Description:
By secondary structure, this protein is α+β, with helices and mostly antiparallel strands. It is built from eleven helices and 19 strands.
Amino acid sequence: MLDALRLAASDPLPAGEGGERSEPGEGKRQARARPGQTAPLPLTRALTRAPSPLVRGLSVLRLLSAATLVLALAACGDEEQKAEAPVPAPAPPPAALPAPAPAPAPAPATTPDCRCEQPQPKQALTLTPARFADLPGWGSDDLTEALPALLASCQALLAQPDDKPVGPAGIAGTVADWRPACSALLTLPVDEAVLAPALESWFRPFLASDAAKSGEAASQGTITGYYEPLVTGSLTRGGSYVWPLYKPPGDLVTVRLGRFRADLEGQTLFGLVQGGELLPYHDRAAIDEAHVLSGQGLELAFLDDYVQLFFLQVQGSGQILLPDGRRLRAAYAANNGQPFTAAGRVLKEAGKLGPGQSSAQGVMAWLRAHPDEAWAVMKQNRRYVFFRLEAATGGPKGAQGVALTAGRSLAVDTRFLPLGAPLWLDTTWPAGTPQAEQPLRRLMVAQDTGGAIQGPVRGDFFWGAGEEALALAGGMQQPGRYWLLLPASVAERLPRQ
């Protein structure tokens, strides 16, 4: 996805962490200032010895040990922080940036004692029935512009068996519930006069709210934006192309917690196995400063600007412009499971950004203007994204596995909402645009997710690719709400609020 990950100004934006998507994905880094050195800007050169091979095959005893650790972590509500084997002290980086301060000695690993904090109200999705007449702006949107996104999601749904649940715990019914509407959509003409009444016939709107909140605040959330960046790179290392883009390492382990406990469905841990234990995977500092992945043949391409690489990871995907003019897409493949921290938030809390400077563009400008401090800021985002290369045709693929549609695809938290479902969005245009603060109301389709997109009422708006998309995504952090459109057969079975 675009996880992950995103490009939000002061808040994480996809993946899509897409996202961290939204920092926005978590953002388009278009400026391409090149470091004067041939080695990584703030980072040290690769270790001279390759990391020892990791255990790939686990005995039954080791698997049980890893599973037990996972459940212990989940019971406390916090991930255990295991100490990684120390790496040799890195050599000083080139003069562009000073060497980062040495990391403190890792604390010894301990077993969680589950002295957890007082539990907070639990987030949960509440759906309140509504009418299409209740949707602000319904009737003023050109619904045909959303048709490509609707058709793409419908085709993905129709390819599944009828009894497959749609959404977490089957909140949106089964594929059989969607088949009549989706089958009909595929045969409709591209005609507003036909599409609007058809949607009103097949679907019922429900206002989404957060059960952990009360009053009007329950249905109000945050809407950020993300886009697909264009970065410059090469398929081979050389000259200024020194920053590697990695594919997923072979020792990266994915643990789907729902397989251990039903109430953890939709939650995932990433790590590595050492000595029969599941440990947190290497963070950004270990990968780009200590170079623990170097020499393993994981490099897909090399960029000429670390700030571009950083924001490419925040957005979750992007296009690489090669020296011969060709373009390839760096698509999201996996992440290291470490927590995401928005660089904009770090700078804002440190008082380094003034009013109006906390957009994606403002954060990128600050990092480029302060090379001596940039690495210390960026490495606080321990999340690291791994990619795969593919042809740069159509839009990037979101978490549903379909190409995203600019202006009509929305990244959501899939712990609460179903991918492929249409949503009616009510928010405002982002700051810095001619329409700033004016209503932005349109039909969207939930097609992506991101590490920074968390909560029942939380969306990340995909704006497309290029500079214009960056301008829109970079300044978007608006209050908003949305209505989930469910098939009539599902609506009839939902309990009334």
